[in-house]
């Protein structure tokens, strides 16, 4: 009997071990499936390009070349350069086709969401400035800058600086006309600014009444972005627009959500740490001081907003969209040349 009992006990242990192994393997398989699904989702645009995705004036030869260099079915390798750009062009084209109400609502939402960064920054700045010098408190608080950007980018709301370079790509490739781009930019800018001003009017006032920060803290942060000559603000905003365009490019290159969060955090955190001028966040910073502070006038607010918007636009379009697009065109010319060489060899 003891031997039978031991044998049964061993059988139960072996059975439990097998069940546990099966559960563990199933969990691993499930995680692998999730990663594959997430990665496949990021490349579905470029794996199945239709003729409708191209402009009517693009030749069949060019369409074939674009499809060839945009194919990217190796999920374990980094995305190809052309695959990233074609995916951005297609996403931008989809944005062009959205209704005006949808565009404005998405941009308005982004303006609200980006204000969360300033709300948390001001709260941290007020807390830190009680224990360390204010200049150090401001730098440390600025490290919370990425919070609102993560919400906007992962939530896929329309933020002007993040979308500036992306939305210009269909125009550079003659898929959409310039006037539609200008109208689209106008809608996104207005939506972002209105959303940001509403956030400043409601949430910043709420923060003051909750004693999370004071009017002095709001004025200090406004002067942190205003206390420069106009050409310094302009140059800073060009660099910030450039970095936001790079962020949009890198987010498209990432195959999973975690990588996108890390990229957005690194780039926007650098913008906050360096004190670069971002038009939409800066709008909330200066408008908050206009409403509740004592150092900003309406003329100063409008002047600042105009300079930073122009700088961000130049940084995003010229340093990202134009250069990236030119590189893509050079790559496409090389592929066409190789295709012609193969065809000549086949005929001969």
Summary tags:
0% strand; elongated; mainly alpha; 348 residues; disordered N terminus
Q: Which radius of gyration do the C-alpha atoms yield?
A: 26 Å
Overall spatial form: elongated
Q: Name the quaternary structure.
A: single chain
Supply the number of helical segments: 13
How would you describe this structure to a colleague?
The chain has 348 residues and is mainly alpha-helical. The chain has helices at 2-47, 60-70, 81-96, 100-128, 134-141, 146-155, 160-172, 178-209, 215-226, 230-253, 257-274, 279-292, 298-347. The chain is built from 13 helices and no strands. The longest helix has 50 residues, at 298-347. It is elongated and about 80 Å long.
Secondary structure: elements and pairs:
Blueprint: H1 2-47, H2 60-70, H3 81-96, H4 100-128, H5 134-141, H6 146-155, H7 160-172, H8 178-209, H9 215-226, H10 230-253, H11 257-274, H12 279-292, H13 298-347
Helix pairs in contact: 2-13, 3-7, 4-5, 4-6, 4-8, 4-12, 6-11, 7-8, 7-10, 7-13, 8-12, 9-12, 10-11, 10-13, 12-13
């Amino acid at each position: 009997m003891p031997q039978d009992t031991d044998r049964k006990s061993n059988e139960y242990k072996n059975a439990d071990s097998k069940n546990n192994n099966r559960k563990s393997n199933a969990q691993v398989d499930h995680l692998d499936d999730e990663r594959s699904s997430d990665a496949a989702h990021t490349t579905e645009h470029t794996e199945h390009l239709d003729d409708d995705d191209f402009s009517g004036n693009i030749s069949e030869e060019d369409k074939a070349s674009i499809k060839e260099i945009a194919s990217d079915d190796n999920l374990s390798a980094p995305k190809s350069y052309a695959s990233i750009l074609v995916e951005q062009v297609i996403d931008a084209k989809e944005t062009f086709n959205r209704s005006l109400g949808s565009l404005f609502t998405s941009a308005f939402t982004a303006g609200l969401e980006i204000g969360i960064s300033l709300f948390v920054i001001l709260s941290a700045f007020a807390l830190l400035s009680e224990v360390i010098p204010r200049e150090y408190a401001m730098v440390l608080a600025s490290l919370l800058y990425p919070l609102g950007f993560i919400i906007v980018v992962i939530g896929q709301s329309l933020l002007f600086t993040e979308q500036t370079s992306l939305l210009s790509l269909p125009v550079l490739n003659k898929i959409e006309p310039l006037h539609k781009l200008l109208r689209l930019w106008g809608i996104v800018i207005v939506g972002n600014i209105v959303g940001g001003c509403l956030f400043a009017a409601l949430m910043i006032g709420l923060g003051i009444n909750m004693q999370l920060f004071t009017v002095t803290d709001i004025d200090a942060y406004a002067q942190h972005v205003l206390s420069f000559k106009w050409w310094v603000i302009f140059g800073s905003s060009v660099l910030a627009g450039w970095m936001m365009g790079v962020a949009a490019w890198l987010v498209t290159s990432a195959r999973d959500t975690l990588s996108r969060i890390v990229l957005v955090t690194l780039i926007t955190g650098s913008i906050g740490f360096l004190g670069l001028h971002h038009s939409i966040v800066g709008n909330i910073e200066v408008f908050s001081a206009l409403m509740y502070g004592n150092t900003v006038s309406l003329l100063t607010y409008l002047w600042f907003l105009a300079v930073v918007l122009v700088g961000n636009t130049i940084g995003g379009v010229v340093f990202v969209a134009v250069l990236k697009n030119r590189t893509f065109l050079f790559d496409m010319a090389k592929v066409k040349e190789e295709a012609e060489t193969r065809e000549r060899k086949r005929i001969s």
